[in-house]
Amino acid sequence: MYQRENHLSRHTNPFPENLDDTVYNRILKDPNYWISQDLEDKIIQIISQSLDISGILYHLGTESLITNAYDLLPLDDSRIDLEEMIQRLPILIGRLTRAVYLNVKPVSNQKVIFLFNYLPEYQEKWYDAVFFQGMLNGLAVLFELKEFKIRMTKTKLFGIHVSHKELGENILFGADSNEYEMEWLEDNLFLSRSRLTKDDLTNRHRVMVTSRMDSQLEEISIVDVKDVVGKSRELAIENRDLEAAVEVLKSFKQELEKKQLSMEKDLRLAKNIQKGLIPEIIPDWNGIQFWTAFAPMQEVSGDYYDYFPYNMDKLGVAVCDVSGHGVPAAFITALSKLLFSNFKKPKPSETFKLINRELLDLVKQQGYTTCVYVLIHDDYKVLYSVAGHPRPILYRAKTKRAEICEGDGTFLGMFPDAGDTFRDLQIQLEPGDKLFLYTDGLTEAENDKGIAFGEDRLIQIIETTFEKSIQETVETILTIHKEFTMGTDPMDDITLLGLQLSPRLPEFNLIKAKGDEAYRKKEFNEAVVFYEQAHQILPRELDTQLSYGKALAYSQNFEKAISLLESYNKFKTNHFKSHSVLGYCYYQMEMFEKAEVEWKKAHSINDSNLSNLYNLAQLYRKLNEKKKMKDVIEKMKRIEESYLHILPLEKKWESLPDE
């Protein structure tokens, strides 16, 4: 093997420093030529530096057993079984080496312990361990065992520098003996010598007879040792090739796993970024309530929805479906958010024209998006435009009927002249009316029979849920959709956005006005009562939620105020007052770290209002943090040196003990 791997001539001695050419040629020609253990060790060490020879040594051990087993058989042609062959194995070890002798300890009829003992002047070698286990494997090959286990249990060696998984698990290194354990389940084959010839007279001494008892019948066959060795060698070569292929596959697998981990990390990052781009909830606006359902097919989605306030009199809402899936689609959704935020035009068609142009410049026709965009006015007139997207479905509370709205137009980001296809359409919302915007992943999803969910089924569900709120309606649609597609894999991202003009809007406005009046009079307990009622009608109407939270805080109901204000701040309105009042509530509940965070946020939003810095100074005074208090006072001086609270704060600072 070493010659072949290194492309050496058969007559070239690769070990000139260790043996002369005469000895080298005798080793190659005469398998019975003996060499010292020292010379054997030197040769093997040199070869093992450039080749993994553990598999070769294992095979040679197997071949040695098979080749020499004939001489262990009885001379009178009587047959022996595996158990008796094992008892004769020490004779073979004695013939092959003068450095080791073998003791055999039967544990049961089908389990044996082999103890390899070295003479005092010799030392165990790692290659001995592999070779001897190969010999034990030769027993299994010779007796055609189908179910067996051979493993090293103990060795005097302190570790083996080749892979020793084949030797066994949990090997005790540095032990006081060298032991192997062999266990088998099947043992019904017998061997005996034969004077028969299989091919010619030269093979006579290498032919054995095998016999196997099967029920009441005895099956007899002739075995040529040369054939067995040849087949064993073929299997060893195939196994070596297979091991090489497995190593290559392992290498590929490791590379793929590294790339997969990297991709998973990138996808998690993209998912977190997209999660920040797509709002979890849309707040109630001017009496209109929203509810959304969003189900990405992969880590990141090509579906996208968002809302865009236009001062106080209009609100834009978009639902988009980007071509493809994964990170490229998520990139275009991020662009969409930026473009919709930048282009707040009075007509949706104008917004589409500008976005189409920008996407063409940025994406270079490598992706596109369909979209429906609605612009809701404070008088509940709705302008909308469709760009290659499923048209909205409008439910009328008066008629209890739902219908697909008009609309047409090509998608965004692919055609320069797409702007000519966009049209503005108008509907007027009445109390109780519902409007549904969705992506085609909802209606095109199929059940296990290949039937699509479809728009007709969607309209039917909307009409049967006429008494339900917009939240209940959306959740009912999703529940029925999940049952319909049960047992199938999702084919696309799914987005459903529903909005409803509250049928209780007049009642809400009246109660809210009473709460505002009580708040202006600083009758906070009374204001809390009215705001609570209004909040139940429109629980995500932000103006009411903030007023309700402040009234709770000023009426000393700090726990409930904290709950309301934390919920309000999730909408990221960047209202400094909500953070300021929340900090005050935390302070009163002695949650000082949280109070500090909220007052810092409030100051960063509105740094001209010094009340938050004053509150921070008082907080640091309470905590005896003199340096932090001094820093805040200096900041207040830089903003407004004449602020009347600075001097009292400095006197309080001077009274603090040094840190």
TrEMBL record:
It comes from Leptospira vanthielii. Residues 287-501 form the PPM-type phosphatase domain. Keywords: Coiled coil, Hydrolase. SMART domains: PP2C_SIG, TPR. It comes from the Bacteria. Gene3D superfamilies: PPM-type phosphatase domain, Tetratricopeptide repeat domain. This is Serine/threonine protein phosphatase. Residues 239-273 form a coiled coil. The lineage of its organism: Bacteria, Pseudomonadati, Spirochaetota, Spirochaetia, Leptospirales. It holds the Pfam family SpoIIE.
